[in-house]
Specification:
Layout lengths: L2 E6 L5 H11 L6 E8 L4 E7 L2 H7 L6 E9 L14 E3 L3 E9 L2 H10 L10 H13 L4 H11 L2 E9 L6 E6 L4 E4 L4 E4 L11 E4 L5 E4 L4 E4 L5 E2 L4 E2 L15 H7 L1 H12 E2 L2 E2 L5 H6 L2 E6 L1 H17 L4 E5 H4 L10 E7 L5 H10 L6 E6 L5 H5 L2 E4 L12 H20 L4 H22 L2 H12 L3 E6 L4 H15 L2 E6 L16 E6 L5 H13 L3 E6 L11 E5 L8 H20 L17
Parallel strand pairs: 18-19, 18-20, 20-21, 21-22, 23-24, 23-25, 25-26, 26-27
Antiparallel strand pairs: 1-4, 1-10, 2-3, 2-4, 5-6, 6-7, 7-8, 8-12, 9-10, 9-11, 11-15, 12-13, 13-14, 16-17
The protein binds 2-deoxy-2-amino glucitol-6-phosphate (AGP).
C-alpha cells in the first residue's frame, strides 16, 4: 500500500526520492507525489495520478533540492486523483505525507474548518497537515505539535512532514505504520520500508510505536511520545540492494520463483544450529504446548493450513487455522496451554496484527510470529519470532515467501515433535526430506518450458479448478489463488474429496482441472476423483511425483516432476503451480507483478 521516502542531504535529493519511490512501487499504489525545498528556499510540490514515471516526467531536472519527501498513494479516502495525491500542504509552508488511516478525520476536519482551514482534497491526510499548521500557529514547536497530534489522532499512521521555515529538518512519526530512518554519511533518510533506502545506506534505525524523529544532514534526533529524547540502535540491513532490481528476468514474480532454491537453503541454514532446530524457541515452551491457533491471511493462511497436516500427524497437537480477518472480530475460545502462531510475510498486515492484539487479551501460552521482515510490527508484537530468509519479495503474488514459510513450519513441526518426545526417527525423516527440497525445486524449475506450454491450455478459459488431497489440499488453494491474482481467471481450490459435494456440477469439456498427485496413501482415492472429472469431459492437468503411475491421454495431461514423495513434497508441488499461473498471466498480458486492485502489504482493514 502507500509508501513514504524522505531525504536531507548535501547532494540533490530529487532523483534519490524518485528512485526510492520506484523501489516502493511493488507495494501497490495509484498516484505519487513529491515536495522539496528548492535552492531559492521555495516549497515545490509535484503530484500525479498513475505511475511514478508519470511523476518523474513532470519534474524539472534543472531544479535541485536538498531536503524533501515523496509518497506513493493507494487510495482509501477519495479517488486516485492528482488532488488527492500526497504530499498535502498547509499555509504554503508545510508539506506532509502519510501512510495509514485516521479514524476521527471527520471530527478533526470539521473543527479545523471552523478555525478557518481550507481543505482541497477528500483525504484523511489533509486533516493532519492542517492540524499541525493550527498547532504551530499557536506558537508550539514542531516537536510539541507531534506530541499533541498523537493525542488527537485515532487510527494508524506514519507521517513525514517538512516546514519551509525550517529547511534543514524533516520530522517523522510512527504510530501503527512502519517508519525507518536510514543513516548515511552527512545525510539522513526516512522511509516506510527499508527497501527504498538500501542503495543509499544499509544502516537503519527502526522507529517504535509513538517514536518521533527529526532528521537533519548530520544527525537523527529521536523522541518518545511525550517528546523526551531517546536512543534507538542502528542495525545493518541485510537486504540485498539488488533485490529490488529485476535483473535479467522479465518480471519480479519470475525472478522470485527462480530464487526459491537459494532462499529455501538460506532459511534452513538460519533455522538450524548444529543439531538444534529453531534454537530461538525455548524447548520448555514447546513441551508445554497442548493446542495451536494459527492466524494469517491469503498465502500465509495457506502455509498455516499445510502446517496443520504436518503438526497434527507428527507432533500430535491439535491445530486450528483461521483467517485473521474473521478471528479479530469474534470472541475465540482458547483452551489452556494454547500457542498462537501468526504468519505474515510482511509483518504489516492489519488483520493479522489486530488478531495479535486480541490475543494479548486472551489466555495464550505464548505468541510466535513467522515473518520475512525483521523489525516488523509483527515480530515486535510477538513473544518469539521465527524468520524466513526469502529476502525482499516485490511481486504482489507471494511465491518465495510461501515456500520459505513452509520450510520454517516443517522445522517448527520437527522442533515441537522433539520437545514432545516423539520418535527420533520421524524427526530425522523430516530433516532429511527438507535437505532435499532446494535441489528438487531446482529440478522442477528446469521444466519451465513445458509448464509454459501447458499455460496456453488455460489462457483462454474463464474458470479453473484446482484439486489436492491431504497436505496438498492447501497447495491446491494456493495454486488457485496464484492463478486468480495474476491472470484474473476465476479459480477455485478444492479438497479432491469434496468434488462430489458440489464442484463436480461445474465440470464439462471447457473446465481445466489442475491436480497435484503424490505417491502417498491417498493416491488411490485421488485417482477415483480424476476418473470422476474425466467421465464428465473435464480437461485434467496433473503434476505428479515420479512414482505416480498415471499416463497422459486425450483428456489428461500428466507432467511427472523429478520428485520423490516425502513429508516435504507440498513445498515442491506448489512450484509448477506458481509457474503455470505466471505464464498464464503473461500470455493474457496482465500486470503480473502488480495485479489490478491489489497491494503487497494490506495495512488497512
Ligand atoms: C499472496 O499472493 C497475496 N498477495 C496475499 O494473499 C498475501 O499473502 C496476504 O495479503 C497476506 O500478506 P502477509 O503474508 O504479508 O501478511
Amino acid at each position: 500500500m502507500c509508501g513514504i521516502v524522505a531525504a536531507v542531504a548535501e547532494r540533490n535529493i530529487v532523483p534519490l526520492l524518485i528512485d526510492g519511490l520506484r523501489r516502493l512501487e511493488y507495494r501497490g499504489y495509484d498516484s505519487a507525489g513529491i515536495a522539496f525545498i528548492d535552492e531559492a528556499n521555495q516549497l515545490q510540490r509535484i503530484r500525479s495520478a498513475g505511475k511514478v514515471q508519470a511523476l518523474a516526467d513532470r519534474i524539472d531536472s534543472e531544479r535541485p533540492g536538498h531536503l524533501g519527501l515523496a509518497h506513493t498513494r493507494w487510495a482509501t479516502h477519495g479517488g486516485p486523483t492528482e488532488h488527492n495525491a500526497h504530499p498535502h500542504t498547509a499555509s504554503e509552508r508545510l508539506a506532509l505525507v502519510h501512510n495509514g488511516i485516521i479514524e476521527n478525520e471527520q471530527a478533526i476536519r470539521k473543527q479545523l474548518i471552523e478555525h478557518g482551514a481550507t481543505f482541497t482534497s477528500e483525504t484523511d491526510t489533509e486533516a493532519i497537515v492542517h492540524l499541525i499548521d493550527h498547532l504551530l500557529a499557536q506558537g508550539q514547536s514542531m516537536l510539541d505539535c507531534l506530541v499533541e497530534v498523537q493525542q488527537q489522532l485515532q487510527g494508524s499512521y506514519a507521517i513525514a512532514v517538512l516546514d519551509q521555515q525550517h529547511p534543514d529538518t524533516i520530522w517523522g512519526l510512527r504510530k501503527g505504520s512502519p517508519l525507518v530512518v536510514g543513516v548515511g554519511v552527512g545525510e539522513h533518510f526516512l522511509a516506510s520500508d527499508a527497501a527504498a533506502l538500501v542503495p543509499l545506506t544499509q544502516q537503519m534505525m527502526y522507529l517504535q510505536e509513538g517514536d518521533i524523529v527529526a532528521i537533519r544532514r548530520d544527525q537523527a534526533a529521536l523522541y518518545d511520545q511525550q517528546g523526551k529524547p531517546i536512543e534507538r540502535t542502528i542495525q545493518r540491513s541485510n537486504l540485498d540492494p539488488e533485490s529490488s532490481e529485476r535483473g535479467h528476468y522479465r518480471h519480479f514474480m519470475l525472478k522470485e520463483i527462480h530464487e526459491q532454491p537459494a532462499v529455501i537453503s538460506a532459511t534452513l541454514d538460519g533455522c538450524l544450529n548444529g543439531t538444534r532446530i529453531l534454537p530461538s524457541l525455548p524447548a520448555e515452551l514447546l513441551s508445554q504446548v497442548r493446542a495451536i491457533h494459527i492466524l494469517a491471511c491469503g498465502t500465509s493462511y495457506h502455509a498455516g493450513l499445510t502446517a496443520k497436516y504436518w503438526i497434527e500427524s507428527l507432533a500430535g497437537i491439535p491445530v486450528s487455522v483461521e483467517v485473521a480477518s474473521e478471528f479479530r472480530n469474534r470472541r475465540p475460545a482458547v483452551p489452556e496451554h494454547t500457542l498462537m502462531l501468526a504468519i505474515s510475510q510482511s509483518g504489516e498486515t492489519a488483520d493479522t496484527l489486530a488478531a495479535l492484539e486480541l490475543a494479548s487479551e486472551l489466555n495464550y501460552l505464548a505468541t510466535i510470529g513467522l515473518c520475512n521482515v525483521p523489525e516488523s510490527a509483527l515480530t515486535r508484537a510477538c513473544d518469539h519470532a521465527l524468520m524466513t530468509r526469502a529476502g525482499l519479495e516485490v511481486g504482489v503474488a507471494s511465491t518465495k515467501a510461501f515456500t520459505t514459510q513452509l520450510t520454517v513450519l516443517l522445522l517448527f513441526t520437527a522442533a515441537l515433535a522433539q520437545a514432545q518426545d516423539k520418535p527420533k526417527s520421524r524427526i530425522a525423516e523430516v530433516l532429511d526430506a527438507l535437505g532435499q527440497v532446494a535441489q528438487q525445486t531446482r529440478e522442477v524449475l528446469a521444466l519451465e518450458d513445458q509448464i509454459e506450454a501447458l499455460a496456453y491450455r488455460l489462457a483462454d478459459k474463464q474458470h479453473a479448478l484446482f484439486l489436492g488431497r491431504g497436505a496438498e489440499y492447501p497447495i491446491a488453494l494456493e495454486g488457485a489463488l496464484k492463478l486468480k491474482e495474476v491472470s484474473y481467471i476465476h479459480a477455485e481450490g478444492y479438497a479432491a474429496g469434496e468434488l462430489k459435494h458440489g464442484p463436480l456440477a461445474l465440470v464439462d469439456e471447457s473446465l481445466p482441472v489442475v491436480v497435484t498427485a503424490s505417491s502417498n496413501e491417498l493416491l488411490k482415492k485421488l485417482e477415483s476423483n480424476l476418473r470422476e472429472v474425466q467421465a464428465r469431459g473435464g480437461q485434467l492437468i496433473v503434476f505428479a511425483d515420479r512414482a505416480v503411475t498415471l499416463d497422459s491421454n486425450d483428456d489428461m495431461h500428466v507432467m511427472h516432476l523429478p520428485l520423490n514423495h516425502s513429508i516435504a513434497s507440498p513445498i515442491v508441488q506448489v512450484v509448477p503451480l506458481q509457474l503455470l499461473a505466471y505464464h498464464v498471466g503473461v500470455i493474457r498480458g496482465t500486470d503480473v507483478d502488480q495485479p489490478r486492485n491489489l497491494a503487497k502489504s494490506v495495512t488497512v482493514e
